[in-house]
Give the backbone structure.
Amino acid sequence: MGETQGHGHQEGHGHAQGSKYGMVIDLDKCTGCGACMVACMAENNVPTKPDETNKLDTITWMRVFKLSNGKAFPEAETCYLPRPCMHCGGKHDAGHSPCVSVCPATATDYSYKTGIVSQIYTRCFGCRYCMGACPYKARYFNWWDPKFPADMKEYLSPDVSVRMRGIVEKCSFCFHRYQRAMDRAFYEGRELEEHEYQTACTQACPAGAITFGDLNNERHMVHKVVNDKHEGHAVLQGRKPFRLLEELDTNPKVYYLSARDWVVKAGNASLRETKPATKKPSGGHH
Amino acid sequence: MEAAYQKIVRLESQLHPEGVQRAPLWQFVLWLGFFGAVLLWGVYAMFLCWFKGLNQTNMNDYYGFALWIWADLGVIAVGGGAFFTGLLRYVIGKDPLKYIINYAVLIGFICYSSALLILAIDIGQPLRGWFIFWHANVHSMLTEVAFCLSCYFGVLCIEYIPLVLENRKLDEIPFFHHTAHNFHEVMAIFAATGAFLSFFHQGSLGGVAGVLFGRPFAYRPEFYIWPTTFFLFTWSAAACGPCFTILVTKITEAITRKKLVKDNVVELLAKIAGWMLLTYSIAKIADTLYWGFVMLPKHGLQITDFYTNASLIYTKLGGVPWILLIEILCSVIPALILVSKKGRQSKPALVVAVLLGSMCALINRWVMVLQVMAAPIMTFDQFALYFPSWQELATTILPVAYGVILISLSHRYLPVFPQERELNPV
């Protein structure tokens, strides 16, 4: 992915935006099973280390955080929060996402055609400035050479390049699936259908907690959920979509749903009444 | 054997500047040997990082910027004495500073070459380092840093070359003699260019943190197109850089057991540094207050969020965010000492002041690198800890050893201190 998808900054100035792919994650449905993480790693050829106990240098494009309301039994509650790359659009959706603007070598770009933030692996020289810029910690550095067990190499996806040591990578919203689906749609001379482009995590979630689609397309479910003001909507069920750290003007494309007040408050510091709900991210090990 | 050694000593002494006393050769070789060993240790760690990758460090995805970036920003800040002294001497016309400008340039040269070396180790794909110039993103502060830093290092080389050519033996060659002379003639242009470039790269380094709108600890509002940290970094480098120049001069004088620069020269530089520090500390306090009480609440945060629920390194001690307090005190105390004539003229007070002044920049850069990374943003995220590996420590000490060696060689063979002969008649 990368250059074929990115259309540079010029496109954002004065041009109408095309698609804007995003997600809605129902936190009340998520059971924390980690299937999304596994599917993501398998789909995107994410390498593993022999010892994965240190979560500070483990690559998890999709990471499930474990949140707690910090209360004792019987009021104790847990919430699992899957966190992919937020594909931030920045202020006014102008493509000024925290990471894209700082990359000194233009190795990450914002596509006004899809709203997806790309990572150009062969151009990244590993300065890690983008990692420092991302408040969601959705970017990961390849501290080691990628190694796969011999038998496993046969299972690597041919659509996704394996990343080398010393560069940054992150969730791409399974952009190769978009390319594949677009190729077919173009060949058949029609528009892309909602079901044709779905991320691996969306399809793997057994609880159906993840909905993916074009936020700009009125026919797509994510558009309906995010823009539907009727609280009686079948998906919303009286809940209001929220995003993580909205007050920072990062303008993420990943929305969350929860009926639990403390979960919504954990999403944004400004909503906190007290200190953070809990701190220990499980990294999917729960 | 003895005769051969004496011959070497005699030949070597012909390289010394005229009319000055130097340490015995065996002593100098031992001195170089010790720091050479430290240097080799650092070089070994450097090659480990290059060949095995950054897994040799203890950096991680929570600390993508760590000890090296602090060291990088730190040496650049304290190396700011070169550009600011050059500005004062050649552009503003503070003539007495001509007796310390050589040393300021040498220290700057060491600091900036070290910074470039550290950057070369710090990037994950060192062979792609040139991408920053080739695929430059003009929106990135790091691009501005790379361009200005490289250009300014070129200027420092030009400023250092005439000093090298003034070596007694090299100076005997007419071409070198005239080259050095002509370089001196046009040095004002390079000093002005250096000051211009430094303004931008020191500022851009401040901008690197200041533009991170996803990191409220570092993020600052814009003034024109730059965040306030842009100006604070330039200001602090201009204030703390001369402090470091004076500090290293005093250390050199202590080690060589000689007076190398007259007091009036040091006091003039100290006075200017003092006023720069005083105005900087006022600006820094104003910036901190605005950040803490206006900007952070706009982002739903409070200043205390960054000084609680963390390790002792950054948290409150006795109800006070100690690292913030020390940072501010390290600018206010030396400023008050240096602006007072009595303070400048007292040797112990002067040394304390320039030491604190140098620490001021180093602590500020530490906070703007490490604490920015450490402070969790998502309310459910953790406050991770980081301690550098020996490879990181060795490669951070490497520039110190390199600096000591280059200073030692320069002092022994080049006329770095024009007043040395007058102050130490043989």
Remarks:
- Chain A touches chain B through 63 residues (CB under 8 Å).
